[in-house]
Amino acid sequence: MPKKVDHELRREDVGRAAYLVIAEKGLAAATLREVARKAGMSSALMVHYIKSKDQLLLAAHEYSAKLVRRRMQAIEKKHQGLEAFRRIVWESLPHDKERRGIFKLWLGFWEMAGQDPQVRAKLNAGYRESQERYEFHLRKAQALGELPPNLDIAFCAWSASVFLDGIGVQTLLGDNMISSQMQKKHLDGWIDAALQSPNSLRKAVGAARPKKPSKPKLSRARRP
Amino acid sequence: MPKKVDHELRREDVGRAAYLVIAEKGLAAATLREVARKAGMSSALMVHYIKSKDQLLLAAHEYSAKLVRRRMQAIEKKHQGLEAFRRIVWESLPHDKERRGIFKLWLGFWEMAGQDPQVRAKLNAGYRESQERYEFHLRKAQALGELPPNLDIAFCAWSASVFLDGIGVQTLLGDNMISSQMQKKHLDGWIDAALQSPNSLRKAVGAARPKKPSKPKLSRARRP
């Protein structure tokens, strides 16, 4: 069935092209026309694969998620426990041009998450995947005796996402564009500190996962 | 000169209305028409004050920045050193409906910073103002003997912004919407830990402020 194969290959080409354009320019400035050119196809043909900006974002994400996942798995083959955790978080930091590009995709998710439930679902699936990966390695580090047994693993894993998002914003949007060296210093500081904080050593209040507040009053626009 | 006064009052009304609408719906879903209605004026009249989405954002920001500044100054009258610092960071956390609203303005800045140099300049002026405020209180805490003398103040102040942005993203965009209680736990954990990390106790590499890397290769779209 050669037609089927073509179709899937093309879809991958489109995802790769979308990723490259967004990583270069950001979602707001990326156009379907430019993605078509990058993918080496006509705009008319590309419309079969991508019709809107959110589809552009999702296609780019699908491509980049595979890329990132493969790198994390490579780290996991060589390292474990705290060292694996440290390298995985480092891998996600926007510490070089390529990784700043991948972070721009996340900015795109934030831009569209308020308006598009599908984008929001993907964004949260991404956070959950990271959370699980962080928890896995922190538990392993605990088992290896690298971390105290009473560490609140879910809390620490989740605060890794807080740390990453914060660095990402400051690096990509703030004028204080942070050097790679400075990001490393922040990462090491955060790991050393976060995993030793008295708060990390107590289990989270109520449940391991942060709970929704009793009155979720955010507007529908932002929480579809 | 009654005309002049009217004009300024109206400008403030528009800023307040813009703030209320963005805080409720987010920038993407806010319309000029709705802001006009909220300000109690016709769309035709409002066009004299606001013509575009970035102007909407900037007007809302001007209003909310005054509001927030006044609150911080009230904290500074009652508290000093580490306690003032802790309360000021807490004030900025999206821990209730109103403060989540103010944080939505920041999301608006992130959305537009890549495309509009004026928005980006305001965003960075905001970060600088916070940075200075944090540094001031951390130095005071040092002088009071609450913090070690070799603490890297600029690094710690800056990592407070990283912390705040990260919590903001996770609270407003992630599904793990974090309770106020959980934000408090994160804040206390971060303060206890960050200010004791071995990395915080060393001066930043090179300079106190993070420096731009030698090859600032981000695309123009994101760094105008």
Number of strands of chain A: 0
What can be said about the biggest beta sheet of chain A? none
Strand portion of chain A: under 5%
Distance between the termini of chain A: 41 Å
- Structural class of chain A comes to mainly alpha
**Poorly predicted parts of chain A:** 204-224
Oligomeric category: homodimer
Of all chain pairs, the largest interface belongs to: A-B, 70 and 70 residues
Based on CA atoms alone, the radius of gyration of chain A comes out at: 19 Å
Report on the structure:
2 copies of one chain form a homodimer. Chain A is 68% helix and 0% strand. With 224 residues, chain A is mainly α. In chain A, helix 1 packs across helix 2 (32-39), helix 1 (2-25) packs across helix 6 and helix 6 crosses helix 7 (117-143). Chain A is elongated and about 60 Å long. Mean pLDDT of chain A is 83; it is low at 204-224. The interface between A and B is large, with 70 and 70 residues.
List the defining traits of the structure above.
homodimer; 224 residues; mainly alpha; 9 helices; disordered C terminus
What is this structure's SSE topology?
2 copies of one chain form a homodimer.
Chain A: H1 2-25, H2 32-39, H3 43-46, H4 53-78, H5 81-92, H6 97-113, H7 117-143, H8 153-172, H9 180-194
